[in-house]
């Protein structure tokens, strides 16, 4: 479990990222959240305040196996990419959510790229 200092550091990094990254209708934001147990990804159009597509390890289809490893994160990346493409979104901007770009976050991003999202 993350300590209070770790949570505030993540919040500071996330606010720093969000000053530079914003989703539009042409290029929505692919926001990633990583907890100790799960990975959540959303494609968000910030100009309208609408979530275009989302996927997570919490969904019933991803139950039964591990939800906090790189393979599960890659599965979420593939799923969110498929859902975004079916919603008509091909290009996104990546919002790592204040988390370092390695491990599960990087696995999710690479899987989304391989599935057809451009960022």
Helices, strands, pairings?
Elements: H1 4-20, E1 29-34, E2 39-45, E3 50-56, H2 70-86, E4 93-95, H3 104-114
Parallel strand pairs: 1-4
Antiparallel strand pairs: 1-2, 2-3
Helix pairs in contact: 2-3
Q: Main attributes?
A:
alpha+beta, 4 strands
Q: Would you write up a description of this structure?
A:
With 119 residues, this protein is an alpha+beta fold. The chain has a single domain (4-114), classed as Nucleotidyltransferase, domain 5 (2-Layer Sandwich), CATH 3.30.420.100. 38% of the residues lie in helices and 19% in strands. The protein contains 3 helices and 4 strands. The chain has helices at 4-20, 70-86, 104-114; strands spanning 29-34, 39-45, 50-56, 93-95. Strands 3-2-1-4 form a 4-stranded mixed β-sheet. A hairpin with a 4-residue loop joins strand 2 and strand 3 (50-56). The chain is globular, with a radius of gyration of 14 Å. 33% of the residues are buried. The mean pLDDT is 91.
């Amino acid at each position: 479990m993350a300590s209070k200092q770790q949570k505030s550091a993540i919040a500071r990094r996330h606010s720093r990222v969000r000053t530079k990254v914003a989703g539009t209708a042409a290029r929505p934001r692919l926001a990633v959240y990583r907890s100790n147990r799960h990975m959540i990804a959303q494609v968000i159009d910030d100009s309208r305040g609408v979530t275009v597509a989302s996927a997570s390890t919490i969904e019933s289809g991803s139950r039964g196996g591990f939800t906090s490893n790189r393979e599960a994160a890659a599965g979420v990346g593939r799923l969110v990419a498929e859902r975004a493409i079916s919603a008509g979104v091909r290009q996104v901007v990546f919002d790592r959510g204040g988390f370092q770009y390695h491990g599960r976050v990087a696995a999710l991003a690479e899987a989304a790229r391989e599935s057809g999202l451009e960022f």
